[in-house]
Amino acid sequence: MCRQWGELVHSPALLGSLEVSIGPARLLPRLRSFVEWLARRALGHVRQLRLGIAAAEDLADGDWTEDESQEIAVSIAAVVTLLAGSLRQLSLSTHKLPLPPLGSWMVLLGRLANLEMTCRRDIGNVTVSAPLPFLTGLCSLRLHALSGEVVVDPGATLPPKLTSLWMRSFCSDVPPQVSARCSCCASNGGQQPPSFAPCCHSASCAMWVQPWLVVQRPCN
Asked: Under 8 Å CB-to-CB from 24, ≥6 apart: which residues?
């Protein structure tokens, strides 16, 4: 019976969509075990993955060593690498932990269509740190920093074929390719919005909205 149940749980039909929460108890050992399990059981099957990694509520930001934070980042990169051939939708979220910047560790995700990155950490940023031309299949990108900022570093670029972009707590300059597309929409008869339009009573909170784009600055 146990063997039959194990075969059912690891069937390709059930492995196609995974929602996994790791932590806060024994976070690092469980994260290592998850990576090992993916390598043994899930290669080529997972098309949708929602992965949440959480530290304990009473953990202060400084309680994690640099080596431990690096191990979490390496493990997340290992998950992405293992599933790159089949993955189409990916949601990554961290709670009380840093989120690795979007960059070269995602280079194998050319088939990914939807990506969501969320950081639930005090002063925790979601950062695009490098050009992302290799995400050639990405259509939808959602970036959310609950108590920090969404930042696109100078020199970084967004994926080339986005049709939907949502950024909350966005605090850097609007990426040139976004500005260029808005200008193109205006020149083709669309209405170009102001840089940012107010979305509530606070002058520090604003949104820039088009059918394919929502960018929100935080309320201070």
From this structure: 54, 55, 56, 57, 59, 96
